[in-house]
Amino acid sequence: MKKRPLTGAEVSKREFMKLFTPEQIEIIQKDIKKKVKNHE
Fold it and tell me: Is residue 2, in this structure, part of any structural domain at all?
């Protein structure tokens, strides 16, 4: 069975997950949401 190639987004997401713990990712995502809200 051939695996379909990963898209760039999937690869970067996987690499991103390796760099951070789930707790750090949650904090980063909350921070991004805050920044987005401040932009509006």
Answer: no
DSSP state of 37: H
Q: Quick check: is 28 in a domain?
A: yes
**Is pLDDT of 40 > 90?**
no
The reported pTM is: 0.46
Residue 1 is predicted with a pLDDT of 61
User: What is the helix, strand, coil percentage profile of the chain, to 5?
Assistant: 75, 0, 25
Query: What is d(CA 5, CA 10) in angstroms, rounded to the nearest whole number?
Result: 10
The domain total for the chain is 1
